[in-house]
Design brief:
Blueprint lengths: L19 E14 L2 E9 L2 E3 L3 E5 L6 H8 L7 E6 L2 E2 L5 H11 E5 L10 H11 L4 H14 L15 H13 L5 E5 L7 H18 L2 E5 L3 H4 L4 E6 L2 E5 L6
Parallel strand pairs: 4-9, 4-10, 7-8, 8-9
Antiparallel strand pairs: 1-2, 1-3, 1-5, 5-6, 10-11
Helix pairs in contact: 3-4, 3-5, 4-5, 5-6
The structure holds adenosine-5'-diphosphate (ADP) and magnesium ion.
Length: about 250
């Protein structure tokens, strides 16, 4: 008898040698709004290959955060499917979704989201504790990821002793702790000055190049967008442009 594992793959694979990491099919997210319905994400079918930095741009209210939350399994679609690295995550129950989020996805937010009373090291340790990583492995991994974001020296500092750019580096290190395949960053430079924002974007580019991660980054800052491999533009929840430069 053949021992086979049932793996459903998306119908469409990207051209070239980079396999698909994320695919959405006819994704819709509606919110009730004053007796009617507001469509925050409208019939979006997109595909994100491995090892790419994809920017999602669009004005405030265009659906960027809604899309990222759906891809990251923080929210559920009204209809349509989301495939991530072997799973139709739109079909998973909450317990499985928690595992996918913990093991495959790292999140970075505009406001950093660090725990104020914990040092940089301790903040980065949080997801490793949640994943029951053994203590000695934990220490090594924390050192690795803080080194990767260039913050080894600041490991013992608490967030209030760090600059905004440094705090976001700690948040990125924390997001990388469990070796995710996908980094989701929602306006990660929104609270930073332009120069610091640019260094954070350059860091994300370097991480994608060096670690084999894919990153999906929402931003409405036009000067940051040219660093991306690909730019997807949303308007009123709809795809209005996709540079798809990695496939072109
Ligand atoms: P962006 O991140 O591009 O600013 P959002 O995804 O936050 O856009 O919002 C898209 C649309 O969905 C907006 O019109 C917003 O008001 C609406 N929206 C977002 N979240 C909710 C919610 N929880 N309840 C109702 N409407 C929402
Ligand atoms: Mg947003």
């Amino acid at each position: 008898m053949q021992h086979s594992v049932e793996v459903t793959t998306p119908a469409r694979q990207s051209r070239g040698f980079s396999p698909t990491l994320v695919q959405t099919t006819n994704l819709v997210r509606e919110y009730p709004s004053g007796g009617g319905v507001l469509t925050a994400v409208s019939d979006l079918s997109i595909e994100i290959p491995e090892r790419r930095l994809v920017c999602i741009k669009g004005r405030s209210g265009s659906g960027k955060t809604t899309l990222l939350n759906l891809i990251g399994g923080l929210d559920r679609p009204t209809s349509g499917g989301i495939w991530l690295d072997g799973d139709w995550i739109s079909e998973l129950d909450e317990a499985d979704l928690v595992r996918v989020r913990r093991d495959k996805i790292g999140f970075v937010f505009q406001t950093f989201g660090l725990i104020p009373i914990l040092t940089a090291t301790e903040n980065v340790e949080v997801p490793l504790r949640l994943a029951n990583t053994p203590v000695d492995e934990r220490a090594e991994r924390v050192e690795d990821v803080l080194g990767l974001v260039g913050l080894g020296e600041r490991a013992k500092h608490r967030p209030h002793e760090l600059s905004g750019g440094e705090q976001q580096r700690v948040a990125i290190a924390r997001a990388l702790a469990n070796h995710p395949k996908l980094l989701i960053a929602d306006e990660p430079t929104g609270q930073l000055d332009l120069r610091t924002g640019r260094t954070i974007m350059q860091l994300l580019v370097r991480l994608v190049r060096e670690t084999g991660l894919s990153a999906v980054v929402a931003t409405h800052d036009p000067t940051l967008i040219d660093l991306a491999d690909r730019v997807i533009e949303l308007r009123d929840g709809q795809l209005v442009a996709d540079s798809d430069s990695d496939n072109g």
